[in-house]
Amino acid sequence: MGFPEGFYWGGATAANQLEGAWDVDGRGASVDDHFTGGSYERPREITVDIRPDLLYPNHDGIDFYHRYEEDIALFAEMGFSMFRMSISWSRIFPNGDDPEPNEAGLAFYDRVLDCCRAHGIEPLVTLSHYEMPYSLVERYNGWASRELIGFFERYCATVFERYRDKVTYWLTFNEINCGTMDIGAMMETGIIQGFEGPASAIRTTPQQRYQALHHQFVASGRVVRLAHERYPQFKMGNMVGFLLTYPATCDPADVLLCQGEMRKTNWFCSDVQVRGAYPSYATRLFRENGVELAMEEGDLTDIADGKVDFYTFSYYMSNVVGTHDVEQTAGNMTFGGVNPYLESTAWGWQVDSAGLRYALNEIWDRYQIPVMVVENGMGAYDTVEEDGSIHDQYRIDYLKAHVRAMGEAVEDGVGLIGYTWWGPIDLVSAGTGEMRKRYGFIYVDKHDDGSGTYERRRKDSFYAYQKIIASNGAEGLD
Ligand code: BGP
What we know:
Elements (H helix, E strand, L loop, with lengths): L7 E5 L2 H4 L26 E2 L17 H15 L3 E5 L2 H4 L10 H16 L3 E7 L5 H7 L6 H16 L6 E5 L10 H6 L7 E2 L7 H25 L4 E3 L2 E2 L2 E4 L4 H24 L6 H7 L10 H7 L5 E4 L3 E4 L21 E2 L5 E2 L1 H15 L3 E5 L17 H20 L3 E7 L19 E3 L11 E3 L1 H11 L8
Parallel strand pairs: 1-3, 1-15, 3-4, 4-5, 5-7, 8-10, 9-11, 10-14, 14-15
Antiparallel strand pairs: 2-6, 12-13, 16-17
Bound molecules: 6-O-phosphono-beta-D-galactopyranose.
The site of 6-O-phosphono-beta-D-galactopyranose has 16 residues, from loops.
Protein name: Glycoside hydrolase family 1 protein
Organism: Candidatus Olsenella pullistercoris
GO biological process, one term: carbohydrate catabolic process
């Protein structure tokens, strides 16, 4: 079993979950800066104003802003050849539509990217990872407004030009398909203008969600076209939060229901961004959900011109749907029924490594463009032993099982070119705002109450991943 030569091994992060320094060097508040901490049982709260009596974990993140050199050196020590990061839009344009970009913000990413290059690490940069300047929420209700397209184009044009010699691989929107879901739409599209209360209480209509997505599709299409025209060396990708879904039984009604779910959740956004057109099933999907898209002339051309060069997705779990009684999962951000053949993490995510092989084959058969798994991982409670060591065998098992599954997919003929583990260093959870939901190979001494020294520590999994990378996935998998 072998991974192709030059296969990218690495880790994935998002600016808002690790940088901290939320109001430093001219940065504007971003959507996630208005989210308090939460937990498995208690949803994060969204507040319109930043309240001194509440804790907003993204404000400090893990202080990557000041510690990136140490962190990237640790990634290099593990053998990373790729680092997926995102640029914080509000570090570059604090209000989203400022007349000039913020030079201090641009200079920060120069330093980070130079540091990656110095270690021989290829950056993979997400342009929008669950955030936008909060000012655009206040004034425009996020992607509900068409104006966002122009602001996004300007932001992208600015960073493309600035980092043209430092970045080759770009992704437009993280998990764009979250915009098809009620709760997901809040982080993905920022349509939370004036909302105050538990994030789980947000309700959006299909009309709002698909309209916001349409604006994102047009924006993505335009910036992909711009990249192809001006920077032929750039490779532009999409990013889908892949929620693999199985039918609960072989009742054809369950199979059809599952097909519909797979289309709505995974294929809809993928089809638009890879094929450059709305899929044929969209007409019925829209009709049955009362969606009437407002479009302008040229929108469909923008989408058609903006086909991506490679396909990326996150993969954490699989779900089940059925027309009969199906026991529902109780985890945070889980969306379906219980699968009796699978075990779940402490947060209720059903671990399914074989499903990764299955998903990879489905994606490859459908699109035939290079594929990367840009998020995969396991949130878990870690215990620091008295001597400071962290024995995270559960994470090692998860990692090995998923690497083996990718190896099988490569054997199946899938054009897989890279793998970036989610949260190679502990960071703030997007779903719950917790620190204790840890993904890292590197432990960060920061806790949910905001305390901690921010000291970094190698876990056992650090060495396990190092071994896998050193042998290009040939060793360290037993
Ligand atoms: C994905 C997001 C990431 C990340 C991950 C884990 O959906 O793209 O930003 O956070 O999920 O989720 P969580 O942090 O909620 O455990």
